[in-house]
Amino acid sequence: MPSPARSSAWVLLLCGLALLGCGLYAFSTGSSSSSSQRGLSLFRTHQQLVTPASDGAATAAGAQSQAHRLRGHQGSSRAHPLRVCATPGSIMSAPEDGAAPALRDQYSLWAQPKGRLGEQLKAEIGHLAARHGAPAFPPHTTVLGDIERPGGRQEVLAVAAELAQKVKKYRINFTDVTRGSIYYQCVYLSVAKDDGAMAAAATAREVFGITTGPYMPHLSLLYSDIPQEERAKAVEDGIVRLYGESSGYDTLLVENGYEVDSFAVWYTPVADKSLKSWCLVGEFELTG
Fold first, then answer.
1. Which residues form a coiled coil (predicted)?
2. Over the stretch 252-274, which tens digit does the pLDDT of each residue have?
3. Contact 172, 139 (CB under 8 A)
4. How far is CA 247 from the centre of its chain?
5. What whole-number percentage of the chain has pLDDT above 90?
6. pTM of this prediction?
7. How far apart, in whole angstroms, are the C-alpha atoms of residue 193 and residue 110?
C-alpha cells in the first residue's frame, strides 16, 4: 500500500497536468479565432479591390466597340498610321490669344492597301517625301474627303458605320503614275474607274449627303507644291521604280492594285499641309 506522502505527490502532479491542458486549450481556441478574423478581414478587402464594373458600364463599352467596329492595326496587315486620334474633343481646342486659329473638324474616308503592297507604297511615299522635303503619309485612295458634320467625330463615325453596311468589297486597279496641279495631287497613281470603285464613291456621297465634282480615284505618292518640271521628273522616277524592268525587288510593285474590304476614317483638316494633326479615327469592315 503506498504511503500518504507519495499519494499526495501524485495528486498534485495530476492536478498540474490538468491545469496545463486547460491553459493550452484556451490559448489554442483564442489564436484560432483571431486568425479566422484576420483571414475574413483580408478576404473582404480583396473583394473590395476586385469588384467588377457595373453592368451598365460594361454594356456601354461593348455597344461603343460594336458601333464603331474599330479593327486592329497589328503587324504588316496595314500601312502604319501617322498616329491614332486621341479622345474626341481634344483636337479642336480653342486657340490662345495671338495663336493660329483652330483647325476645322474635317474628315476623310480612305481605302488603304494592306500587306506587302501597302508596305511598298508606304516606302515609295517616304522616298519621295525625303527627296522633296515633303510630309509622309499612309498610302490610301480617298473615297470621300472634306467631311464635316454638325455632330463632329461621333456623327462621322456613325454615318461611316451605316455606309460600310451598304458597300460591297471591291478592287482598286492602278493605271499609271501621273501628276496633278494642286498640293494634294502632286504625284499619284491613277486608279481605274471600275464599277466597284465608282459605286463605292457614289454610295458614300449619298449616305453622307455630300455633293462633289466628278470623282477621280487616285492613290497619292507625293504632297507638294513643287514646280511642274519637278513633278514631271518625279513621275518618271516613279515609273522606273514601281514598274521598270531594272527596278529592285523592294520597289517593283508586287501587285497592280488591291482588294478593299474596309473603310478607314481619318481626321484630315485640309489647312494642315504638314499633316501633323492627321490621325486615324476608326475603321469599318465592308459588309454590303
1. none
2. 899 999 999 999 999 999 999 99
3. no
4. 34
5. 61
6. 0.70
7. 16
CATH for 65-88+104-285, options being 3.40.50.1240, 1.20.1260.10, 3.90.1140.10, 3.40.50.620? 3.90.1140.10
- DSSP state, 80? P
Cβ neighbours around 253 below 10 Å, total: 17
User: Distance between CA 273 and CA 49 in Å, rounded?
Assistant: 49
DSSP three-state, residue 86: coil
Q: What backbone phi and psi angles, to 5 degrees, belong to 104?
A: -70, 155
| Residue whose entry in the numeric block shows the C-alpha cell 498616329 | 83
CA 218, CA 193: separation in Å to the nearest integer? 10
Do 272 and 111 contact (CB within 8 A), yes or no?
no
C-beta separation of 102 from 270 below 8 A: no
Task: For the beta carbon of residue 218, count every other beta carbon within 10 angstroms.
Answer: 21
- Write the pLDDT tens digit of every residue in 74-117: 333 344 446 788 754 444 443 444 445 689 999 999 999 999 99
HSE value, Cβ hemisphere, 13 Å, CA-based, for 238:
29
Query: Is residue 72 helix, strand or coil?
Result: coil
Separation between Cα atoms, residue 143 and residue 112, nearest integer Å? 10
| Chain length of the chain | 288
Between helices 55-68 and 152-164, what is the axis angle to 10°? 60
With vertex at residue 118, the alpha carbon angle to CA 270 and CA 90, rounded to the nearest 5 degrees, is 35
Q: Whose CA is closest to 284, among 200, 184, 192? A: 200
What region does 268 belong to: left with phi over 0, alpha with psi -120 to 50, or beta?
Answer: beta
> In angstroms, rounded to a whole number, what is the distance separating the alpha carbons of residues 234 and 241?
10
Query: What ranges do the domains of the chain cover?
Result: 12-42, 65-88+104-285
Q: Which residues contact 167 (CB under 8 A, 6 or more apart)?
A: 199, 200, 203, 204, 263, 286, 288
